[in-house]
Structures are given as C-alpha cells and as structure tokens.
Amino acid sequence: MLEIKNLHASIDGKEILRGVDLVVPTGEVHAIMGPNGSGKSTLSYVLAGRDGYDVTDGEIIFDGQNIVETPAEERAAAGVFLAFQYPLEIPGVATMTFLKAALNAQRKARGEDELTTPDFMRRVKAASEKLNVTQEMLRRPLNVGFSGGEKKRNEILQMALLEPKLAILDETDSGLDIDALRIVSEGVNALRSPDRSMLVITHYQRLLDHIVPDKVHVMSAGRIVRTGGPELALELEAKGYADYAGEPA
Amino acid sequence: MPAIQETVDQVRQIDVDQYKYGFVTDIESERAPKGLSEDIVRFISAKKNEPEWMLEWRLDAYRRWLTMTEPAWSRVQYPKIDFDDLYYYSAPKSTSGPKSLDEVDPELLAMYEKLGIPLREREILAGVEGASDRRVAVDAVFDSVSVVTTFKEELKKAGVIFCAISEAIREYPEIVKKYLGSVVPVTDNFYATLNSAVFSDGSFVYIPEGVRCPMELSTYFRINERNTGQFERTLIIAEKGAYVSYLEGCTAPMRDENQLHAAVVELVALEDAEIKYSTVQNWYPGDKDGKGGIYNFVTKRGDCRGDRSKISWTQVETGSAITWKYPSCILRGDDSQGEFYSIAVSNGYQQVDSGTKMLHLGKNTKSRIISKGIAAGRSDNTYRGLVSAHRKASGARNFTNCDSLLIGDKCGAHTVPYIESKNASAVFEHEATTSKIADDQLFYCLQRGLSSEEAVALIVNGFVKDVIQQLPMEFAVEAQKLISISLEGSVG
Ligand SMILES: Nc1ncnc2c1ncn2[C@@H]1O[C@H](COP(=O)(O)OP(=O)(O)OP(=O)(O)O)[C@@H](O)[C@H]1O
Ligand SMILES: [Mg+2]
Q1: Which of B40, B130, B134, B384 has its CB surrounded by the most CB atoms within 10 Å?
Q2: How far is the CA of A184 from the centre of ligand 1 (A)?
Q3: What's the distance, CA A87 to chain centroid?
Q4: Reduced to 3 states, what is the DSSP secondary structure of residue A125?
Q5: Is residue B460 scored above 60 in pLDDT?
Q6: d(CA B270, CA B311)
Q7: Is residue B72 exposed (0-12), middle (13-18) or buried (19+ Cβ within 10 Å)?
Q8: In chain B, where the domains are located
Q9: Amino acid B96: pLDDT
C-alpha cells in the first residue's frame, strides 16, 4: 500500500525529513512515535502533498505509483486521508456542506456519480451517531468554536465518510477525554479493514491499548530509527526517547 | 452544493483569458460625433424626440457641468478622462422597436445566450411561458436604447408603467417632471450632472397606489460601442402602499480603451411603499495587467419620502476596473427603513470604492448595512459608508456590519465608516472584521479532495451567503457564479 524510500524533504531550505524509509502493507496499522520536533507531522504533510514542502530526494509509492509530484487533491481522491493534528476552522461553511462537497469532489475525480442528498444524509447520520457528533455540530461552520475533542471526532467522521485507502492520524488522541478516546478508538477500529492501511502518530501508549498496531516505528531527527511490534510502545513509555537522541533537527 | 458544483463547472468552461464575456457583436450603431457641446446635447434630445422642457433641463445641466470639476476624494486612481474624446450617443440601427421576438436581431438573442442570462428569462425572451407562476419582465437596454420589452400588457393591466425613460418623457411627462432630479439633484455631483445633460436611456417604473407589481422587473445593460460613454438614467416611483422588486444586471465585451459609465438611479417610495433594487454588475474589469476595463461612476439614491416606506439595495459587484458607487437611502418619512446589502469582489488590478449613505431624517427610522468585500490579486477594495442622524431623527437606529476577506497578500481592504449623529437618542452600531483565506485552510480543503477553485468558492460562498440570501432566486445562482468566475486564478 505505502512504501516510502529514502524520503528527504525540506521547508524553506531547511531539511526536516532526512531519509525516511517505511513500508505499510495493505490492511496493516502502524504507529509512529517520536520526540517533539522529530518530523512526524512533517511526514504526514509530505505524504498528503502540502505545498511548500520540497521533496529533495526519495519516493513515496502509494498503490504502486510514485505520488511525489501528484497534487494534494488528487492524492485525496486516490485515497490518502490525513486527520490533522490541528484541524482548521472554516468560517461560514457548514460542516455538513463541507462534508458533502468533499465527498462529491472525490467521487467526481474518481469518475463516480455524486451522491443524492438522501443517500448522503443516511451515511452522515450513521457515521455521526457512532462518533457522538450531533446534528447541531453538523450545522455549525466547520470546526468553528468546536472544542479540541469535538474537532478530533469530526476528523474521524470525515475519515469514515471518505473511506480512504490510507489514513494518517496525527495525534488524534491528544485533547481527548477518556470517553472520547474510547469513542474515537472504536470509530477507528471499526474502519480497520483488509483493504485499508493506517499510520497512527501518537505520543501515548494508551491510544495503542485501544488501537493495537501491527508495527511501531520510532522517528527521530527526520528518520525512522527503529521498528518493532506493539511491545516497543511499552518500552518507549518506560524509557523515553533518550536512546534515540539523534542530531538535533 | 449544486450551486457550487455549477459554479465550478462554469469556471472550468472558461478558457479564453479571465473574462468570458469578451466578445463584440457587430450590430451597426448610429452615433453622435465625439465630444461634448450644447450641439451634442441638442442632438441627443432631438434623437429622442424630446419635448422642449427636457432639452432645457439637459442644457441647464450641461452648463452647470462646465463649471464643475471631477471629485478626487475616493481611494481610486485612474488616468484623467478626456471628456472630449468620448461618444455621448449611440443606438442600434433600427430604433422603432420590434413588435415581436421574430423582429429582434438574432445577434442580440445569441448574445443573451452567451451571457448566460438565466434560462427562465431567456425563455421569456423566446416567448415561452415559465413553469413558475412568478415571472420576470425584461426590458433590455441594448446600447442605450430599449430594444425589446415584454409583458407590457400584463403590467398595464395592473396599472404598472415599465418602459424606457425616453418613452416616459414623451408619454408621461407630468410624472417624469415631478420626480426626475428630485432624489439626485442635477448638481448633485460631477457625474450625476454629466448624466443629466447627456443621459441616453434607461428604465422608468411607476407603481400606482396600493399595487403590488405582479412580477420582478429586470433589465440588462450592455456597453457595446467603442469609446461610448454610457449614461443610463433610471427612475422608479412606488406610490402609497405599492411594492416593486427591480433587478438589474450587466456585462460588457472586452475592450482596450477604458469606458466610462456614469449612471443615475433615483427611487422614490411614498407612504407604506417598498422598493427592492438588486444589481449584479459584471463589467469588463480590465486584463491581467490592469489594462482596459470599465470606469463605473454611479449615483444611486433612494428617497423614503413617505412614512413607513422601505428601500432595499442589494448589489453584487464583480466587474469594472474602477467602481465608485454608493447606493443610498434618504430616510425622510417617519418609521421608514433603508437597507444596503453588498458584495464587492475585486481581483487583478480592480479598484472598488463603494458603500452607502443612510441619512436618517425622520423619527424612528431604521437602517441596516451588510457589506462583504472580497479582495484578491492586486486589487484594492474600500467600503465607505456614512450613517447620519438629523436633529429631528429621534429613535434612529442603524446596524452596520462590514466584513472583508483577503485572498493572497498583494490586495488591500479598507473600511471607512463615517458616523454623524445630531440626535442623542440615535443608536448606531458598527461591526467590522477582516479575514484572510489562509494557506493552511486551503490545504485542509485540498486534502479532503476539493480543488483550489472549489475550496475558494466554498469559503467565499460561506462568506457572502447573508447577502446572497437577499437576492431574488434567479439572481442568487448567477451571482454565485459570477463571484467564482471573478476569483478564478486568485490562488494556487
Ligand atoms: N514551516 C516551518 N518552517 C520551519 N521549520 C518548520 C516548519 N514546520 C515545521 N518545522 C520544523 O520541523 C521540525 C519537525 O516538526 P514537526 O511538526 O514535523 O514535528 P513533530 O514530530 O510532529 O512534533 P510534535 O510531536 O511536537 O507534533 C521542527 O523542528 C519544526 O520546528
Ligand atoms: Mg506533530
């Protein structure tokens, strides 16, 4: 599904990713952990195709294609989804309106018919109930005035509707209370499927108690420095990142 | 979402330059020689078979205009206009007016199609009865002279007069004499005075006492002649308890030279009357380098002359190189109300200086101003608004909300509110915000699969929806399209 080879990327000439190698096979869930500033969010942006991030070397093979040059919206339609660490607010645009625009834009890009309104409403209703997203929230402008936890639930709602092939969750657990963490984790687990891969970025083992990963990677100073099974997260929790202190970014 | 989708489709269809309406029809024109003199004023008046009093009115205006100078207080900048290098009159060849659509120049009909005039209006032009019971009468002003007028009969039955102002001058001189220049005096300002001297044509609407106009009235203006100054004159009168909704929309072919447009619109609402005036303005804004484009110096003013009368201005301004326009309300009658809803979009090198004046003269008068300015490219977008309360305007209320949205970092938005209150009981509220479509918001949208055009359209539609809602349905969709087309290429 996803194969990252020797990926180097910089912002404003400053190199942040310094040769990332990572493989996430179809149907697997991998976690990435690592100290603040090690480049986890940067990796997620580069995978999603954000402007201003220069890939200076390496490849991102998604579904058999190198997507390094592919525009962000085409990657999205091809099935790359990013749940943002800090979801953006879009004033004036109702959440519901945004969801429908996004879903139909992707369907159109893939040559599929747009959903009819009743069909769309049915899907939103089903997904939002599971994630405890109220109708009132769906009517409000996207993320405007949403609490931290509400924003994160809204990200997972979008993931549920857009049904991506690769979901990158950047610290989706931060800012969630205990109940919300359970709801979100259940939501994510429900989306686990043999056709879908996930890359879960987190600082905390407790998320991985709910979403048990196939593999755990440690990122430090712009590289993946270690890969192991779920037990690696427990080790990190106990020992911290002292062993992995690469050169400071 | 369909509106957005339609917008995006429409945007995609555009492959010729930024401006889709850049075509020139070759309907031959008959026009006065270049320049302005008493003789030209006489020529225009004679062309229209005007009575002597009208000619005198024009000549008086012309003489006063000679003593005036161009105003320089707005933020707009443009090269000096050579008023002797303009044509002040041009008309399509056959001025007698066709009796039916078969007689209408097919070029003109084809042009309506190209302009994307809403289907329903086109159907009406084609003589097809609309599916809806609400109907729109179209009085097409084509190069200064009314070419086709529909639904005259039905309007006549209701007692409504809707015709070219040149016709009204001949047919209803008493009404015209009574009201023309009564809201915008001949000497009001440089451009209004010029208009008074040389106005070519425009619309006249008279709604008799107690009559609710049975349909929305709509007029399309086009500027279609090289170097033709356009001087439309519109006069709308709603008698006691009358109601009318009037829509105006326009666009123009691409031109190299700048074209001057100086219209005057006067509205008079008597006791308990209501006038809704909506505009979608889409004149050629100039090319990518800011060359060409229309200069739009307009004087629009409504007089709430009677108690409890109401005048609403709704405008969507996307075109013109320079816009200088302040649709205003004189709240003279007690308990009268004025409204101004505006969307002003500027891109490229466009300059907009627009806003309103709400002059509270009567007791318990209310006004509401909602202005949404969107600036992209290297454009400059200024809201300029005056709210004033006269000494006797006890209980006057105003609410003003001015929001600006910036796209990119080379454009500018400015808010210049003037407030003058001579009555202690007046309550004026003013809110203003400025925001920007940030790169990270755009990326968020792209990550969800929207193209940058779709993302901008979505955000902009959200930003302007309070004003779009004020437009009649048939204009709302067209207006959204125009806004998106105008902002095409503003990001990415
Ligand atoms: N726009 C930018 N300009 C310059 N440096 C940047 C920019 N964005 C990120 N960086 C730097 O890149 C490095 C990696 O940042 P990134 O956000 O990817 O870290 P992270 O691993 O996600 O950290 P955290 O755990 O705190 O979320 C940091 O040193 C950060 O300061
Ligand atoms: Mg991060």
Answers
A1: B384
A2: 25
A3: 11
A4: helix
A5: yes
A6: 10
A7: exposed
A8: 19-435
A9: 38
Q: How many CB atoms lie within 10 A of CB A22?
A: 21
Q: How far apart are CA A59 and CA B52, in angstroms?
A: 83
In this prediction, residues B227-237 reach a mean pLDDT of 78
More confident residue, B90 or B11: B90
Burial of B55 from C-beta contacts in 10 A (0-12 / 13-18 / 19+):
middle
* Full DSSP string of A10-36: EETTEEEEEEEEEEE-TT-EEEEE--T
* Interface residues from chain A to B (CB-CB < 8 Å): 45, 48-52, 71-73, 76-77, 81-82, 84, 87-94, 97-98, 100-106, 109, 114, 141, 158, 162
* Residue A216 vs residue B466, higher pLDDT: A216
**Confidence band (pLDDT; 50, 70, 90) for A246?**
low
Question: What type of residue sits at position A210?
Answer: H
Residues 6 or more apart from B387 whose CB is under 8 A from it?
A: B357, B358, B360, B367, B369, B398, B400, B417, B418, B419, B420, B428
Q: Return the percentage of chain A with pLDDT > 70, whole number.
A: 98
Closest Cα to atom 26 of ligand 1: A36
Round the average pLDDT of chain B to a whole number and report it. Answer: 79
Which string of DSSP letters, residue by residue, matches B275-325? EEEEEEEE-----TTS-S-EEEEEEEEEEE-STT-EEEEEEEE---SEEEE
Q: Is the distance from the beta carbon of residue A225 to the nearest atom of ligand 1 less than 6 Å?
A: no
Pair B270, B305: CB distance under 8 Å: yes
Sign of the Cα torsion A139, A142, A143, A144 reads negative
- Label residue B167 exposed, middle or buried (CB < 10 Å: 0-12, 13-18, 19+): middle
Query: Taking 60 as the threshold, does the pLDDT of residue A184 lie above it?
Result: yes
- Write the DSSP symbol of residue A69: T
- B275 pLDDT more than 80: yes
| Cβ pair B190, B68 in contact under 8 A | yes
Burial of A134 (0-12, 13-18, 19+ CB in 10 A): exposed
- Measure A8 CA to ligand 1 centroid, in angstroms: 14
Residue showing tokens 């709509």? B218
Residue with tokens 């200086």: B353
With contact defined as beta carbons under 8 Å apart, do B220 and B250 qualify?
A: yes
Alpha-carbon gap, residue B264 to B276, rounded angstroms:
16
Fold of A2-238: Rossmann fold (3.40.50)
Supply A86's token pair: 């800090």
Contact by Cβ (8 Å): A131, A156: yes
Report the relative pairing of strands A2-11 and A53-62 from DSSP bridges. Answer: antiparallel
Does ligand 1 come within 6 angstroms of the Cβ of A197?
no
Domain boundaries, chain A: 2-238
Averaged pLDDT, B314-338? 91
What is the b/e burial string over B96-126, where b = at least 16 CB atoms within 10 angstroms of the residue's CB?
A: eeeeeeeebbeebeebbeebbbbebbbebbe
CB atoms B440 and A88 under 8 Å: yes
- Integer Cα distance of B203 and B236 in angstroms: 8
pLDDT, mean of residues B197-219 = 88
What are the DSSP E strand ranges found in A111-212?
A: 141-142, 166-170, 197-201
Its pTM stands at 0.79
